[in-house]
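Q: What structure does this chain adopt?
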Amino acid sequence: MSKGKVDVLLGLQWGDEGKGKVVDVLTPRYDVIARFQGGPNAGHTLEFQGQKYVLRSIPSGIFQGGKVNIIGNGVVLAPDLFMDEAMDLEKSGHDLKHHLHISKKAHLIMPTHRLLDHAIEAAKGKNKVGTTGKGIGPAYTDKVSRNGLRVGDILCNFEQRYAACKERHLKMLNALGWDDFSGFDEVESKWMRGVEYLKQFAIVDSEHEINNILREGKNILCEGAQGTMLDVDFGSYPFVTSSNTICAGACTGLGVAPNRIGKVFGIMKAYCTRVGAGPFPTELFDETGKRIRDLGHEYGAVTGRERRCGWIDLVQLRYSVMIDGVTDLIMMKSDVLDGFDTIKACVAYKLKDGSETTELPYEIDDITPVYKEFKGWQTDMTHFTDEKQFPQAFNDYIHFLEDFLETPISIISIGPDREQTIVRH
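A:
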């Protein structure tokens, strides 16, 4: 019996590493692209042929004609936001209904989940996590407390199930003292239209479909959302997302056995960013941080929020490589650093007691980064087509990263367009 393989692509930092573009670049090698966790809080931006697209719930392989794309059971889906996203893509000429399959076991984000998101954040005051307010956390909370509403439920006894969930949420909102329901009826009405729109797609038992695809000898690329440091177990808790963003999440988020995982592509920026609250050891508050933000256009694809910027953190990255079992590194946005005289990389942490460590500690909100400095390459690489064109200073930087992280860098991005991608040999 022939067996296909499952490769996984995920972010190694705090999200926003550029996963969408890389999925789009890698898709031609695969028969199926599957999204395994997260919700519409994760925006994947792709640029090609002069057009810019932002995907929130739909896998980034949708632009490669004829490929099957699967939204897996580990994803939480908002029908109204999904409808907006899908209809925009259909208007631009992309056929979704024949190529996009949705797991019956994926959980639904209800309108009341968004209200709960805002109410819970408001109750936390200065300790708020900085969520996108899209109801992701409350939807996953319902999932683990066994109170969730799933995509498969829209096909059977849906009105009754929806009403019971809504009633429970309203009681919770009342207990939190939340009384702002302005515009709710309109949101709920659109949400219900989204549910009807969902029914036009193939709603499947995705775990069976995926394993049947593997039995046929076909290959699957699993697309993660957010980044390893936002993982609910291994990230900078409690400033994390509500799902497992690590490689193991592909197994539980799609129904794939661990022994079917092949390559693990770990994506990192040539520097580091973070959105929202939480620890960020290498964050820069000076002109250098602002310059990185401006050159890298570091604003959230979904929220438009200004991203916090800093130098690359190799202690954190080595931790992510270990947790995810990364086989291939992909470095994004190296072009942002093209004009810098000096490049820095964090190679150790100095702890409160004065000692140094190269292992990620339990608490990272009160450490001092120890930097190694590199001579900048000061070369515009955005038009390069081959790694042989790289300046020596950039090659030195790459080789140091590979040695420190004990993992090869297979792909380097030198700009936002699909064509601005160097595959190293």
